[in-house]
Amino acid sequence: MYTDKVMDHFTNPRNVGEIKEANGVGEVGNAKCGDIMRIYLQVEDDIIKDVRFKTFGCGAAIATSSMVTELVKGKNLDEALQISNQAVADALGGLPPAKMHCSNLAADALHEAIKDYIRKKEGK
What we know:
The structure is a single chain. About 45% of the residues lie in helices and about 20% in strands. By secondary structure, it is an alpha+beta fold. The protein has a three-stranded antiparallel β-sheet with strand order 1-2-3. Helix 1 (about 5-10) crosses helix 2 (about 60-70).
């Protein structure tokens, strides 16, 4: 049902936790399945220097959160905004169709964290 990459990121998630002095935080959830993801960013000169996540959800939700952190670390904000939910699933070798709608919210949480960073930077 799950690829080896999904299982690896579920059983050995990368970048778990929070950044106490995060300058961008994004949270999304899916009421249908109960998954909640929070992404923390440390951005310097529009480059993502550090990224962490906390996720409450199924194995696919944890795996997608882990993968999105790996995909964006060291990227500039424009590159990070180009990462879609489908790109995260593809990087994991795919997800079962039943898990795409409720578990792959990781890119959405990332985009919310970037929006939060931009709002804070602009003083809004």
